[in-house]
Amino acid sequence: MISSRLTLEGPIGNDKTSFLLAGRRTYADLFFPLMTDSSAKKSKLYFYDFNLKVNHQINERNRLYLSAYTGRDRFGQKGNSDAGFGNLTGTLRWNHLITNNLFSNLSAIVAKYDYSLKMKQGGSDYVWNSNMMDYTLKLDFNWFLNPQNEIKFGLLSTFHDFDPCDAYIQGENSRLGSIVPKNYALEHGLYISNEQKINEKLTLKYGLRYTVFQNIGSATIYSFAKGYPNYAVTDTTYYSRGKIFHTYYGFEPRLGLNYTLNDKASLKASFARTIQNMQLASNSSGGMPLDVWFPSGPNIKPQKANQYAIGYFRNFANNTIETSVETYYKQMEDIIDFKDNAQLLMNPRLEGDIRSGSAKAYGIEFLVRKDNGRLNGWISYTYSRILRKIPEINDGVAYPATYDKPHNINVILNYELSKRVIFSTNWVYAIGAPVTFPVGSYKIDNTYGKYYSTRNGYRMRDYHRLDLSLAIKGKDHPGRKWQGEWVFSMYNAYARHNDWMINFVQDSKDNSKIVAERWYLPFVCFPGITYNFKF
After folding, report:
1. Distance between the two ends of the chain, CA-based, in angstroms?
2. Mean of per-residue pLDDT scores for the chain
3. Gyration radius of the chain over CA positions
4. Among 29-38, 78-87, 393-402, which stretch is predicted with the lowest mean pLDDT?
5. Bond prior to 229 in cis (omega within 30° of 0)
6. Burial per residue of 354-388, b for 16 or more beta-carbon CB atoms within 10 angstroms, e otherwise
7. How far apart are CA 275 and CA 467, in angstroms?
8. Alpha-carbon gap, residue 524 to 499, rounded angstroms
């Protein structure tokens, strides 16, 4: 009742060419005008995505693969706010069997990510559009040297095109243009790895990757005087189109091992050094989310991380029940975040509001899984923390990242009442995300402002939801190609009001007061009837 999906797969002309086409869309927004709540009537909430794949066998040693994807999410409220984000990507891959032990994949990839925000302030609508385009060419090789060694190596090159902010004010018919200067960059990578089977019990995976990140023109780069309270602009430099003006280099080693204790248990451990040349800074207030991607450059260093992990895996009941426990620790350098009271909208020097420091992430994950039998499913629990420490933010005191959620629980269970009837339940729980809330207000010249808490000093309410479903499969008929099933479901069965965002606005009756507005889905408990078919 709120979504549909369709997948088609089959040959094109002959058995050497085949295709797959898949799409889905939610349309809960069609029901909003029927609701009695005035704010619900104005709500917008939907997503869609499409996938296309085409495979063609040229001959026994050569194959071509074409794939494309597009998808978009949109949510908001008519006349007040609107937000949307989406991806568009396409890949053409040529698979070539060089010898019986060596094959290659040559891929050309185009990818676009974009998002838009629309916010009403006063009598005007402020619109913010942002997008990133990537053009990648990569060549990968797989070499089965012998039964004990599988070697992978390759190289890639990507051209990045960043447009962080194209903004305008609708109410004034005024186009502000690219508020934050556009950025261009080249990123190159060269890697080699080996999966080596030492003996029947021990397998090693090790490798090395070398990366190069180059900023290129045209570009306008600001120089900032670093120091309290603000980073004042000291110089502006313009680089002509195509000029490489800044370069970062880095090595990324990897090591992993898998040790089989017996036919029921094994140990896994790994180490990885990673470098991320594109960093994300997020607004942590409770209102409209705002994420900005920043490429490495003269003012922003690449993020570096060392991650360690170890896990124990064991099966029970004749290998019908899988269990595991894994723990990890990750140390990060040169992570970024917005300074306190940063001006995020309409700021052409947004890099000047960025501060850098270190972070650490650690956690432990438990999993129990059963795939066979009338009762099957899995239960998982994760405890994880992500803490940041930036000298010029939060008085230098460590604070949780916006995606720090210490407790996560997932319970998915299926029970076969008969061969044709299956009852399923899905329960999820996550502690609320950290958020920065106003804790007071002040007045200057009849204008009210807000005092904010320490960085991410509060949390949104915990998120939890129970979904139920009953699937009834059609009867089996020998030789019949059509198969169908009915699914009766209940989304959010106990009607939990899970928050989407919280806004703090002036009271319409008393301007001296600030009130909180809690936004959540207008429908809290929603039944569904689905018919699945395949032929």
Report:
1. 22
2. 88
3. 27
4. 29-38
5. yes
6. bbbbbbbbbbebebebbeeeeebbeeebbebebeb
7. 39
8. 11
Residue 171 in 3-state DSSP? coil
| Angle at CA of residue 71, ends 461 and 74, nearest 5° | 45
Peptide bond into 218 cis (omega under 30): yes
The token pair that represents 440 in the structure block: 């007071």
- How many whole angstroms separate alpha carbon 527 and alpha carbon 517? 27
Q: Which two tokens stand for residue 462?
A: 């915990």
Q: How many residues does the chain have?
A: 535
259 contacts 201 by C-beta, under 8 angstroms: yes
Q: Which residues of 26-37 are buried (b: 16+ CB within 10 A; e: fewer)?
A: eebeeebeeeee
Contacts of residue 52, defined as CB under 8 A and 6 or more positions apart, other chains included, come to 19, 20, 21, 22, 66, 67, 68, 69
CA angle, 120 then 44 then 427, to 5°: 120
- To 5 degrees, how large is the angle CA 448–CA 453–CA 458? 125
Instruction: List the structure tokens of 402.
Output: 């916006």
Written as six digits, the tokens of 305 are 């991380």
Residue 79 has a CB neighbour count (10 Å cut-off) of 9
Q: Which residues pair with 381 in a beta bridge?
A: 366, 409
Would you state the structure tokens that stand for residue 96, as one six-digit string? 């070539």
pLDDT given at position 338: 86
Where does 474-517 have alpha helices with state H? Answer: none
* Separation CA 25–CA 23 (nearest Å): 7
**How far apart are the C-alpha atoms of 315 and 85, rounded to whole Å?**
42
Residues 471 and 531: their CA atoms lie apart, in Å, by: 9
Measured over all CA atoms, what is the biggest interatomic distance in the chain, rounded to whole angstroms? 82
3-state SS class at 396: helix
CA nearest to 106, candidates 52, 135, 63: 63
SS3 category, 39: helix
pLDDT digits (tens, 9 = 90+) for 292-336: 788 899 989 999 999 999 999 999 988 899 999 999 999 999 999
| Continuous segment of H or E residues that includes residue 121 | strand 102-121
SS (H, E, C) 440-472: EEEEECCEEEEEECCCCCEECCCEEEEEEEEEE
Helix (H) or strand (E) holding 484: strand 483-491
User: Which residues, 6+ apart, have CB-to-CB distance to 311 below 8 Å?
Assistant: 267, 268, 269, 324, 325, 326, 327
Range list of H helices, 196-283 = none
Which tens digit of pLDDT belongs to each residue from 200-210? 999 999 999 99
In the structure encoding, which two tokens stand for residue 158, read together? Answer: 């990507």
